[in-house]
Amino acid sequence: MSEKPLLEPGKATIVSVRRLTEGERVFEIELDSGESLGHEPGQFVQVYVPGFGEAPISITSSPTKEGPFELCVRAVGNVTNALHSLEVGDNIGIRGPYGNGFDVGFFEGKDMLFVAGGLGLAPLRSLINYVVDNREDYGKVTTLYGCKTPLDLLFEGELKRWEESDVMDFSVTVDKCPVNVTWNDNVGVITELIPGIDVDPEGTYSAVCGPPVMYKFVIQELKEKEIPDNHIFLSLERRMRCGVGECGHCQIGEFYACIDGPVFNYSDIKGVEEAL
Ligand SMILES: Cc1cc2nc3c(=O)[nH]c(=O)nc-3n(C[C@H](O)[C@H](O)[C@H](O)COP(=O)(O)OP(=O)(O)OC[C@H]3O[C@@H](n4cnc5c(N)ncnc54)[C@H](O)[C@@H]3O)c2cc1C
Ligand code: FES
């Protein structure tokens, strides 16, 4: 990532920071212009940390949330570690929202199956909460979430509310549980949850987001459930620079992840070798 942003970002201020796990924090951000971000679930922003550079980060809050928008950030490198060192009142730059996002209007009236692995919950959370806040517009909602261990659970309080409410069927699993940690739920990879769910394949549309290794196996299980390829939507990550279709960094075959994605219909990309 370059130190200087490619395009001029808008000024923004961090208004709250919340620690979720050892490596992940949620930042509430306000644009200094006073405008709302005006995003769709699944879109991302380019976050500029002065002196460090830019990184694409999904907007994790739903557009139905009033006030500041939220980013859930895992500290992995230059920009994200710098962001984790910032505090309430510090300034950053924001470009966007960018990308296509999920078409919430198209999903209206349909059953929804959300499959989130690890940090993949960050972009899907925006869509899930949008659907929860407009619950009467959607059919049956099922959410499956998997992460490495109970210590890696993101948005734990919110997961508990989803699990206890009747707005959706919710299941969670962890790959493994350390001996000194209490966990009374599923243990195993997320794909193991799919055979147990009850879906009407023709009426169900799935939104999937997780680490690259997850997609192939989740798609296999969704096919076992006879969910058609064009009912499967995947949010894909690629290394990005401009975020607006100009630099070519994020190319996937004939597509640019930043403008044609990050949300892709599986039927459009299943033949593209480097996509999955
Ligand atoms: C659309 C989109 C949405 C995203 N949403 C989120 C989100 O909500 N939350 C979040 O935490 N992250 C998200 N990411 C991922 C995030 O943008 C990356 O992790 C980004 O690289 C972090 O920037 P950094 O400067 O902190 O890390 P970097 O310094 O870029 O390093 C990140 C990792 O990539 C490795 N790396 C560095 N350069 C290369 C290279 N050229 N090729 C391969 N690997 C390399 C590093 O070793 C390190 O492990 C998203 C990415 C995309 C494209
Ligand atoms: S990031 Fe530049 S074209 Fe997609």
Descriptive notes:
This is Oxidoreductase. Pfam families: DHODB_Fe-S_bind, FAD_binding_6, NAD_binding_1. It comes from candidate division MSBL1 archaeon SCGC-AAA382M17. Residues 7-104 form the FAD-binding FR-type domain. The protein has 276 residues and is α/β, with parallel strands linked by helices. The chain folds into 2 domains: 10-98, Elongation Factor Tu (Ef-tu), domain 3 (Beta Barrel), CATH 2.40.30; 104-235, 3-Layer(aba) Sandwich (Rossmann fold), CATH 3.40.50.80. Helix content is 18%, strand content 30%. The chain is built from 6 helices and 15 strands. A 7-stranded mixed sheet has the order 10-9-8-7-11-12-15, sandwiched between helices. Strand 8 (141-147), helix 4 (156-164) and strand 9 form a beta-alpha-beta unit. The structure holds flavin-adenine dinucleotide and FE2/S2 (inorganic) cluster. Residues 240-243, 245-250, 256, 258 line the site of FE2/S2 (inorganic) cluster.
Care to give the gist of this entry?
With 276 residues, this protein is of the alpha/beta class. It has six helices and 15 strands.
